[in-house]
Every structure is written in C-alpha cells, then in structure tokens.
Amino acid sequence: MTIHPRMHVAPIDQMDEGMDMLRTCWAALQDMSVLDDKMVLSIRCTLAVAIETLKPVRETVNKAHGEGRI
Q1: Disulfide-capable partner of 64 in 14, 15, 40, 69 (CB 3.0 to 4.6 Å)?
Q2: Mean pLDDT by 10-residue block, N- to C-terminus, for the chain (70 residues)?
Q3: Long-range contacts of 29-37, Cβ-Cβ distance < 8 Å, separation of 24 or more
C-alpha cells in the first residue's frame, strides 16, 4: 500500500481519484463558453492535484516493474 500525502489510500483508489479529477477537467474543457479566468484557474489547480495524486501510484508501478513483479 502506498501512503498518500494526505491519508492512507490504496494505490488503486488513488488511481481512481486521480482519473476522476482528469475526467472532470476534460469535461470542463468541453464547453468553451464557460471558460473564464476563474474556471481556468480551477482546472489548473485540479490538474495539479491530479498529478500529485497519481505520482505515488506511478512510483509504485515503476518499482514493481523494476523488480519484475509486473
């Protein structure tokens, strides 16, 4: 199990959380008429959190791959 910076979260749950954030950003970008400065800032912040959420999962997968477990 990977320790999430904010709490103990299983890697698959971290991946789901990060993917949900990415999907939310994608959906927000589909309607260009609502994109004002506040919305763009919100999307940027959500992307930054998604990257940080997925980083430990990536490290876990890379470590497992390097050890020949996957």
Answers
A1: 69
A2: 59 93 96 92 96 91 81
A3: none
